[in-house]
Amino acid sequence: MDMLLIEGGCRLSGEVAISGAKNAALPILCAALLTAEPVTFTNVPQLKDIGTLLALLRQMGVKVSVEGGAVTLEASGLNNPVAPYEMVKTMRASILVLGPLVARCGEARVSLPGGCAIGARPVDQHIKGLQAMGAEVTVEHGYVRACVPRLTGARLFTDMVTVTGTENLMMAACLADGETVIENAAREPEIVDLANCLVAMGARISGAGTDVIRIQGVERLHGATHRIMPDRIETGTYLCAAAVTGGEVRLTGTSAAYLDAVIDKLMDAGCEVVTERDAIRLTAPERLQAVNLRTSPYPAFPTDMQAQFMALNCVASGVAMIRETIFENRFMHAVELQRLGADIRIDGNTAVVKGVERLQGAGVMATDLRASASLVIAGLIADGETRIERIYHLDRGYERLEEKLAALGARVRRLN
Ligand code: EPZ
Fold first, then answer.
1. ω into residue 299 within 30 of 0, thus cis?
2. d(CA 266, CA 256)
3. Which residue intervals of 41-182 are DSSP H helices?
4. What is the DSSP track for 49-76?
């Protein structure tokens, strides 16, 4: 079991390149199921979750070729519209094959993803939308089974804003008969990136990025080439790491365009942030000011940055209130941060963080992807050595993390 050893106390400085966005690449790779023609994606991050999804697509009969950050998929030989539990349980975003499989094959059998550390993660909205489009959907023996000769366009309204729910239904609607309107759609930039890829494949979509997305179904989609957008959460994570260490970094191959809420909070905390066309520079103050935050769907403050900002608030001056409104159990990192000396009080979905002068290095355990990132950030500013176990969580969402941190001057190494 790999672990990370971090020697705290180094100011981060220098430049690193940001990778392609995991949460754009996952739905976009599934979009290849919608056509028999080859589709090529570039700037694909080399992550565990991406490898898991490619293995899932391969066992369905999709031809997969990978050259560095370029992936070409060809689903002409798609002959097994099934996503088995053994594969889905390791990566719940596998549910994103459901919509494309029903649209392309008229049937799908996808294991229910089940919950994870941060919550129950139900997929009822995905199912409700497909049923509204005419699919017969049953849930039995832990699998979602869906079948319909051809989906029919419909007006869909999701009970809550759901990112992968919006993505699944948007992909399904591309090959439906007639127009589909998704109301209360998620507005995340990753949905816009997916829509841009689908349009390049011949889909007819308008409104992506707003809460009403219109899709005119077409008979078939064709091949295309698409470059995955930069990872805004990886970007925010490195900005936080630089901020807490009093550092000065320049992140390239990324954009501030999708990080307004995060950059606002970093500036409130006392950081100077300069945005260039495809880079962001951050200069941190001697000591940060505590910042309150409340997670909400895009464009508000992203839940995927909540854990990283909790680490930042642990050593900021003042008291911060953090409210997590998206997931029911996304404070798992708090108890681990307390092992490092943080002063955090949890009350339901609210955390009260009282900044302390210094944290002390200790052994801690990663519980989920973004919680692991918050422990890395805390380790960078803790006195002495911090040992983070179960870092396979990190490998799911951060490409070459220790390499990039070391390039910025951090003393970090991986032990296995
Ligand atoms: C996506 O998850 C992201 N994952 C998550 O990132 C992110 O935290 C989340 O959106 C919120 O922004 C990917 O894009 C692969 P939701 P998703 O459906 O789509 C409830 C990371 O760290 N809900 O937007 O699964 C749900 O329980 C990951 O990279 C239903 O009740 O999240 C949650 O409370 C973690 N029924 C809320 O909606 C449904 O059918 C939002 O979930 C669907 C969702």
1. yes
2. 12
3. 48-58, 85-88, 98-105, 124-132, 163-173
4. HHHHHHHHHHTTT-EEEEETTEEEEE-T
Residue 155, helix vs strand vs coil: strand
Length of the chain: 416
Q: Annotated catalytic sites, by residue?
A: 116
Spacing, Cα 331 to ligand 1 middle (Å)? 16
Q: What is the pLDDT of residues 49-78, one digit of tens each?
A: 999 999 999 999 999 999 988 999 999 999
Residue nearest to atom 21 of ligand 1 (CA): 304
**Taking the mean position of all CA atoms in its chain, how far away is CA 400?**
16
Q: Following DSSP, what letter does each residue of 302-348 receive, concatenated?
A: -GGGHHHHHHHHHTSBSEEEEE--S-TT--HHHHHHHHTT-EEEEET
* Cα–Cα dist 278/18, whole Å: 10
Tell me the CA–centroid distance for residue 298 and ligand 1, in Å: 12
Judge contact between 55 and 87, C-beta under 8 A.
yes
Number of neighbouring beta carbons within 10 Å of residue 376: 27
Q: How far, in Å, CA of 312 to CA of 290, rounded?
A: 8
Locate the ligand 1 atom nearest the alpha carbon of residue 49 and give its number: 15
pLDDT, averaged across the chain: 96
Span 17-27, pLDDT tens digits: 999 999 999 99
Distance 29 CA to ligand 1 centre (A): 18
C-alpha separations of 144 from 64, 216, 351 in Å: 25, 26, 36
- Calpha distance 406→388 (Å, rounded): 16
Give which of 12, 116, 118 is closest to 334, Cα–Cα.
Answer: 118
